[in-house]
Amino acid sequence: MDVVQEVLEKHRKELDKYKPITVEKHLECRLDVGTLLITDPNDLDDRQIASAEKENYLRALTRDNTQLLVNAIWELNTERVDESIVAKLPEPTTVLPRMRKPPGPRVLTKWEKFAKEKGITKKKKEKKTYDEVLDKWVPTYGFKRAEAEQNKDWVLEVPQNVDPNTDMFQKKMDLRNEKVAKNEIQRMKNIVRAKKIEMPRSGYLGPEAATSSQLLTAVTVAKSSTASVGKFQNKLPKEREARGLGVKELIPGAKRKQSHIADQPEKEANLDLIKSVLNKKPKLDVEKAISLQKQDERLARDAESGNKPAKKSSKKGKGSRKAVGKKPKGNRGQRAPGKKAAAGRKRR
Amino acid sequence: MKRLSEERTKILFEKLSKYIGTNVKQLIDRADGTYCFREHRDRVYYVSERILKLSECFSQKQFACVGTCFGKFSKTNKLKLHITALSFIAPYAQYKVWVKPSFEQQFLYGNHIPKSGLGRITENAAQYQGVVVYSMNDLPLGFGVLARSTTDCKSADPLTTVCFHQSDIGEYIRAEDSLF
């Protein structure tokens, strides 16, 4: 009997090493076996958390909850595959949030955007159209379209203004290749625009693909690419400077010009500028000269026709009288020193 | 608000000197503090430096205007004077045109001045001279450009245009939204 007692004792001791697989919980835990997730709604014991036993308490709690999860797994149907027991997990019930933000709507291409703005809708073309020249139905695109076209344009006219030896078929093919290339560039540009990547701006894309602002930039860059950064390059009539973001960086020497604010105080700079504006040599204005001459002559004539005051009935009133009053000054020879011969006026 | 580039300052002074000649200096060289020209949304503003300092705490986007709007630069870099500049141009005007009371309203609706509407005119003004237009009781109404010189005016017939309309105080109502 002693032996039996011993064995039982040993077994009990061994059992004591393992904790029981049943766990008592105040509130039931939520289980999602599909994602191997267990959520414990029970409150943590504040006293335990505050005490030194915190780590042990948390470890025990985790063990208990894990035990519950394992229990749940064991309740599933199990099967044996190559000496290991395998359970098939059910579909997960917990909805996990996405890691990344959901993708937005596809960015419209330039044409699509334009068409949307203008309200242009795509017209569906017939798959086959009747060709009167060939007298049969011809596909508008795709399989056998090229063949049909070849049959139709089996001969091409060489226009009068073109060299008679040109290969019109080659020309037609070139035109088509160019179109394809242009379309490809535009497709790339659309991708660039959609992904908001920096596109290299340098280089000249050719008149087909470049936008007007790109052409303008190319002209400005080319002009300022001289040894003297374009300082002595003549301006074309109605020429415009390239503008926009980052254009300055492309133009050699442009950065230096950027700041127009000198050390000179603003007021003095302005006064200097005014001086230069006002001191500009006046253009020889024949009309003005004639009118001044006429004015002088008229005044002289008025003076000659007697020293009596100007007609009282003059409509001009004060203004003209003032002008007449000025007249004697003119005869002192200050007005036109160069015109001595002409100044044959009667001196008073 | 930024300082005008040298090119634009030159354009501005050239324009102003068409109306007030050498008196442009008076706008800059003032006894009552420093005044300067600033550019914002292609418009030129004439501001006292004291007020300019106060305006500096606003960002570009929030900013509407400060001081007096003198005019607007077109895309081809030409300056168009606004009527708001009149109060600064009128006192210094060298060449003046007075319109008859009967034509005042016509002018304020934006019409050119014909000989028949002309009351008085400064002597010796050449053709295409910038002038300030006054009513007969010396109230500045706007500005324009002479279509004919003073001497030619005298011999012109009553219906010919004497002064091209450029701007008038009626614009305060007509172009209220784009003026400042």
UniProtKB/TrEMBL annotation, chain A:
Keyword list (alphabetical) reads: Nucleus, Ribosome biogenesis
Question: Highest taxon of the source?
Answer: Eukaryota
Q: Where is the composition biased (Basic residues)?
A: 309-332
Segments of this protein annotated with the region Disordered: 232-267, 290-348
GO BP: any one term: ribosomal large subunit biogenesis
Q: State where the protein is found.
A: Nucleus
* Comp. bias (Basic and acidic residues): 290-305
Q: Report the GO terms under cellular component.
A: nucleolus; preribosome, large subunit precursor
Q: Which family does it belong to?
A: Belongs to the RRS1 family.
**PANTHER family attached here?**
RIBOSOME BIOGENESIS REGULATORY PROTEIN, RIBOSOME BIOGENESIS REGULATORY PROTEIN HOMOLOG
Name the job this protein performs: Involved in ribosomal large subunit assembly.
What is the protein name stated in its UniProt record? Ribosome biogenesis regulatory protein
Its source organism is: Drosophila lebanonensis (Fruit fly)
From TrEMBL, chain B:
Record's keyword annotation contains 4Fe-4S: no
Q: Which CDD domains match?
A: Nip7_N_euk, PUA_Nip7-like
- Which coarse location class describes where this protein primarily resides? nucleus
According to the entry, every stretch annotated as the PUA domain falls at 95-174
Sorted alphabetically, the keyword list is: Nucleus, Ribosome biogenesis, RNA-binding
Question: What's a GO biological-process term for it?
Answer: ribosome assembly
Q: Which GO terms describe its molecular function?
A: RNA binding
**Keyword Ribosomal protein appears in the UniProt entry:** no
Per UniProt, subcellular location reads as:
Nucleus, Nucleolus
Choose one Gene Ontology CC annotation of this protein and give it.
Answer: nucleolus
* Organism superkingdom: Eukaryota
Entry function: Required for proper 34S pre-rRNA processing and 60S ribosome subunit assembly.
Assembly description: Interacts with pre-ribosome complex.
UniProt family annotation: Belongs to the NIP7 family.
Output this protein's name: 60S ribosome subunit biogenesis protein NIP7 homolog
Protein source organism: Drosophila lebanonensis
